[in-house]
Amino acid sequence: MHALVRRPSPRLADGLVTHIERSPVDIDLAHEQWEAYVAAMRSAGWTTHEVDPADDCPDSVFVEDTMVVFGDLAVISRPGALERRPEITAAEEAVRARGYRIAHIEAPGTLDGGDVLKHGDTVWVGEGGRTNAEGIAQLRALLGPLGAVVVAVPLTKVLHLKSAVTALPDGTVIGHEPLVDDPSVWGARFLPVPEEPGSHVVVLDDRTLLMADSAPSTRAMFEERGYTVVAVDISEFEKLEGCVTCLSVRLRTAQG
Ligand SMILES: NC(=O)NCCC[C@H](N)C(=O)O
């Protein structure tokens, strides 16, 4: 099990904020929290690979947004925020070095990796924030031949689709209802959670979830369902609308 991560930029505190008020970021604490996040992944059996840092890009730590990986293909994103476009170059090199085939979202398409939720062969993509219809059409054309069913989902309330919903290993889609535009997209498989940060899980393995420690009630809910939860403090990234998912790209089909 391999994952890409990217060290925070010294300019992290200048990162973008869209749906929340800006509050001061403690850069030293952010570094400590990032190290602890990476350590948590390693303890769960993941080998982490660092994408070369992009010190001029404040949001580069949110490496999830640079790509979508499906099967043996890495689709390099075209971030919706101009400021974030330079982040993709080194991310592409890193995933290529892991043996993935490479494709790109091209202009006028835009797509952020954080807008893409995958479970099995279904790929839900949030449309309306950083990702546009053209970006989704390109993703569909690239992933369709690999067996993916790409479903566009409306997104207005939060930055990225995965700021609103993520999936448990059994395919249950979790979200904090006030921030989910249309839970009916997922029908009976949608499970409301009581806290906003409780919507974000990184699946470490079939029984283990990584989540923020700012959602204790949701954590208890998942533990009752039999999951082991590893909780990390990511307060400094949450101030920039980041969550646990955005800090890594899991390469579940390890290559080369
Ligand atoms: N996948 C994610 O949820 N990424 C978070 C990106 C936060 C960053 N401040 C941004 O606005 O792009």
From TrEMBL:
Top EC class of this enzyme: hydrolase
SUPFAM superfamilies registered for this protein in UniProt: Pentein
One Gene Ontology molecular-function label: dimethylargininase activity
ATP-binding listed as a keyword: no
Transmembrane segments annotated in the record for this chain: none
Gene Ontology biological process terms from the UniProt entry: arginine metabolic process; citrulline metabolic process; positive regulation of nitric oxide biosynthetic process
Keyword annotations of the record: Hydrolase
Enzyme Commission number: 3.5.3.18
Catalytic residues, chain numbering: H160 (proton donor), C246 (nucleophile)
NCBIfam families: DiMthArgaseDdahStm (NF045660)
Family the UniProt entry places it in: Belongs to the DDAH family.
Record protein name field: Dimethylargininase
Origin species: Nocardioides albus
